[in-house]
Write a structure and sequence with these properties.
Shape of chain B: globular
Oligomer: heterotrimer
Largest sheet of chain B: 7 strands, mixed
Helix content of chain A: 25-40%
Largest interface: A-C, 25 and 20 residues
Structural class of chain B: alpha/beta
Strand content of chain B: 15-25%
Strand order of the largest sheet of chain B: 1-9-8-5-4-2-3
Chains: A alpha/beta, B alpha/beta, C alpha/beta
Largest sheet of chain A: 6 strands, mixed
Number of helices of chain A: 11
Order of helices and strands of chain B: HHEHEHEEEHHEEEEEEEH
Order of helices and strands of chain A: EEEHEHHEHHHHEHEHEEHH
Structural class of chain A: alpha/beta
Radius of gyration of chain B: 20 Å
């Protein structure tokens, strides 16, 4: 099986940078801040693959760069260096000629596309759920409208069809359909997360980014949301990138996990191997610290 | 022929000579005209795109038609025939003032007859009679930005236009339909021009929006206060934003007609008699109404 | 079917000053297809370690684990890619430990049904019937089918665990003290189920704390010292 997405050398630097940044930051130095120029190497030369239908966990403490990674992959921030290539099976036929100029299996570097092209790719391929629903939802717009926004961006122009799709998704996430026209501001935290999930799934993405989605939720609500995510994954054959600092969440959702520290991936492997036979010093510390 | 000298054979009254001393033809200097013409060319080359320009001081206040006026003055030639209307009416105070001003500084003939005019400057209406490829319609625009309702930031709306990122505008329409059963925008109805830019057609009623699509004439839009010029060239696709199951519709005047001329195919103004409380309807386009009455009276 | 060759595993605990703990040393054995090998030895000898290295929960230090995969042919599990291991675990290789991994909000019935549905590609009805009959055989009361296993007794949880592991009929099944928390009768039922699975061709490697049980159920025994 070939990877869905190939990431190579992904780097994000905040600040002007110098020739010592890459060498003098990282887990051995226990910092992502360059001592010479003050730049922050939030993500430093990250390389990994994401396979179709797999849930890949990304675990690390705050400042490890895991959220930055999601922002980069979701085209919210510009990368400083690196490439992101997608397999041709993921791209609609109308974009094939543009994205695969030499007709290979993998596209050209998506990070170098224009804003417009990146938005097209993002709308077609990706969905995202944030920890804070205010980031992912427009609180003043109806929940149905939030879901419809992605469809509208993809060119849907039929109100009844969009509402049907929204109702379908709301039902799947156990939100009463009668509340479709209410704004998410009226909903509880768990329900807001579920609306976010609906919005992320509305256009049948191939990849779902989950950025600390259950952090801050009550335990029972967390269980419900995680259960939902598990079911949706098997139903929709999604690939997921699950960012969390909670090893329990990672263990539940992901078969493979990457451990990040100070902008680097220090270890990656099968989730149970990471948790039961951690190799890297930092991973061992992390696992030992788990409640 | 350089236009900074007055034409020798103008038939203006002599006391106007004193007023004209120190002003070039058409009131604006050549530099201003050049810049505005360039902005117009760019606007025509990119239909629906708002071109920023240096909006000049005019002898009327901002918000009273300075944008339209600057376009008219930049384009007008001595042999042009000018018509100016405000909400369809040739006789409105503001239309008359602008018309007189332009006539004075350009020495042009004026008219109320749409068919005879070469340049028509208008506020918030498009004439009922179809215009030709020998005519230009100059529209006065208060708010050029169609997306302002959904996004207050200028930087952000510029980015949205640049990237054709219009989903929030569509979302606004979706919410209208969900809340009220239909889109509630009446004037300034957003349209997609040439399949690319979402454009504000200025506060014309829905009735007039279809006139923009595949027309023979050139439409120029001037916003003096906001310092933008945009254009819809002839034979350009102009499609109002609509949904498959909620199509665009114009105002419905079924069963109503103009009390003056009997027209049932023009945009009607509703007038309520304050004393008797009687409702009557009159053609908004006064020139059109006059023509029909003339025809009837023959 | 599966051959372990000079398997050695040492843990290096960085956070304890690079302390090294040898978990197993130079283990070698082979299991023919359909066979049942028992692993015996004193506590701490490395029996669980060997199973976990085979399942790839542990990374082998050195040595090889040659496995005849139906999907990939002859592979070395110790060095195989993560993707392939995930695939093999999904389609061919199962693992039963002493403890049920509790997933919140999933009922006992769903726990057993899930692997059947995702791996065998049968209808919900067929999966349900098979799951129900398994749970019934393992004497889980019917009224607990829709309950969440988190609140079950240790023995009940383990029986659900075993049902989950065998329900989808893996080619290779690794068992780490599966009957430790079960009473005598339950043990008997579990052994019957394992025997049936063997008759369908499943190869097994197991650790049983009871030496007599170990001898009775397995074809051969490998001693780790």
């Amino acid at each position: 099986m070939q990877p869905l997405i190939r990431i190579r050398g992904l780097t994000k630097r905040f600040g002007s940078g110098c020739d010592r940044c890459l060498d003098e930051t990282g887990p051995e130095h226990d910092t992502n801040l360059c001592p010479h120029c003050g730049s922050v190497l939030a993500c430093n030369d990250l390389s990994f693959d994401l396979f179709p239908g797999e849930a890949l966990g990304v675990v690390g403490e705050s400042g490890s760069g895991k959220s930055t990674l999601v922002r980069l992959l979701h085209f919210e921030w510009e990368a400083s260096a690196g490439s992101m290539e997608v397999h041709r099976s993921a791209v609609g036929s109308h974009l094939l000629a543009e994205m695969f100029p030499d007709n290979g299996d993998y596209s050209k570097n998506l990070l170098l596309l224009s804003h417009f092209q990146r938005r097209q790719m993002r709308n077609a391929l990706m969905g995202i759920v944030y920890q804070n629903p205010h980031l992912g939802l427009r609180m003043g717009i109806s929940s149905g409208g939030n879901i419809a926004e992605r469809l509208l961006g993809a060119g849907w122009r039929n109100i009844a069809k969009m509402r049907r799709r929204a109702a379908e998704l709301l039902e799947k996430t156990e939100i009463p359909v009668q509340r479709m026209d209410e704004p998410p501001a009226n909903f509880s935290g768990g329900m807001q997360q579920r609306v976010q999930i609906d919005k992320a799934l509305s256009n049948n993405p191939l990849i779902l980014f989950l950025d600390e989605v259950t952090t801050g939720l009550d335990l029972s609500v967390q269980a419900r949301v995680l259960d939902l995510i598990r079911n949706l994954r098997s139903e929709f054959k999604l690939s997921m990138l699950v960012v969390s600092h909670d090893l329990g969440v990672i263990n539940l959702l992901c078969q493979r996990t990457m451990v990040m520290k100070a902008g680097h991936i220090v270890e990656d492997g099968l989730t149970d191997q990471i948790l039961q036979d951690p190799q890297h010093r930092y991973t061992q510390l992390l696992v030992a610290s788990q409640l | 022929m350089p236009l900074h000298t007055w034409p020798k054979n103008s038939d203006h009254q002599d006391n106007d000579e004193e007023h004209r001393v120190g002003y070039p033809f058409g009131f604006m200097d050549e530099g201003a005209k050049k810049e505005i013409r360039r902005a117009i060319l760019k606007a025509v080359a990119i239909p629906g795109y708002q071109v920023p320009y240096g909006s000049r001081e005019m002898p009327i206040a901002r918000g009273w038609g300075t944008g339209g006026l600057q376009i008219t003055l930049a384009l007008i030639q001595p042999d042009d025939i000018l018509k100016v209307i405000d909400q369809g009416c040739d006789g409105s105070v503001n239309a008359v003032n602008i018309k007189k001003f332009v006539a004075k500084v350009a020495g042009v003939t004026v008219t109320t007859d749409t068919a005879v005019a070469t340049i028509i400057q208008t506020r918030h209406r498009i004439p009922e009679e179809r215009m030709t490829d020998q005519q230009i319609l100059v529209l006065q625009v208060p708010y050029p930005e169609a997306l302002r309702e959904v996004e207050p930031s200028e930087m952000e709306t510029r980015r949205m236009h640049a990237e054709a990122d219009y989903s929030r505008m569509w979302l606004y329409l979706y919410e209208d339909i969900v809340r009220y059963g239909e889109i509630t925008i009446s004037y300034r109805y957003p349209v997609t021009v040439n399949g690319r830019y979402i454009t504000d057609p200025s506060p014309i009623p829905r009735w007039d929006v279809p006139k923009l699509h595949m027309a023979d004439t050139l439409f120029l839009f001037g916003a003096g206060r906001e310092k933008r010029i945009y254009a819809i060239p002839p034979h350009t696709a102009v499609v109002p934003l609509e949904f498959e199951d909620h199509p665009f519709r114009t105002e419905d005047f079924a069963g109503k007609s103009c009390a003056r001329c009997g027209a049932s195919d023009s945009f009607l103004d509703e007038v309520i008699d304050n004393t008797q409380g009687i409702r009557s309807f009159f053609c908004s386009d006064s020139g059109y109404c006059d023509k029909r009455r003339e025809k009837c009276s023959r | 079917m599966i051959t372990v060759e000079n398997l050695t595993k040492t843990f290096t605990l960085h956070i304890l000053g690079e302390k090294k703990i040898e978990a197993c040393h130079d283990v070698s054995f082979g299991v023919p297809p359909g066979g049942f090998l028992g692993l015996a030895g004193p506590s701490g000898a490395g029996k669980s370690t060997v199973l976990k290295c085979m399942y790839r929960t542990y990374l082998a230090g050195s040595g090889a684990i040659h496995y005849q995969s139906s999907a990939y042919g002859m592979v070395d599990l110790a060095t195989l890619s993560d993707q392939a291991v995930i695939d093999i675990r999904h389609r061919e290789m199962g693992y039963v430990s002493q403890f049920l991994k509790v997933i919140p909000r999933v009922s006992a019935l769903d726990v057993v049904m899930e692997p059947i549905l995702s791996r065998n590609g049968v209808t919900r009805d067929v999966a349900r019937k098979r799951a129900v009959s398994l749970l019934e055989r393992l004497r889980i009361p019917t009224h607990l089918f829709d309950a969440y296993p988190a609140t079950f007794s240790g023995g009940e949880q383990q029986r659900v665990n075993i049902a989950r592991a065998v329900s989808w009929r893996p080619r290779l099944l690794l068992l780490d003290e599966p009957t430790a928390s079960l009473d005598q009768d339950s043990v008997g039922i579990v052994l019957d189920i394992l025997k049936e699975l063997r008759q369908e061709g499943t190869t097994m490697i197991g650790i049983f704390h009871d030496p007599a049980l170990l001898q009775s159920v397995t074809d051969s025994v490998y001693h780790i010292s």
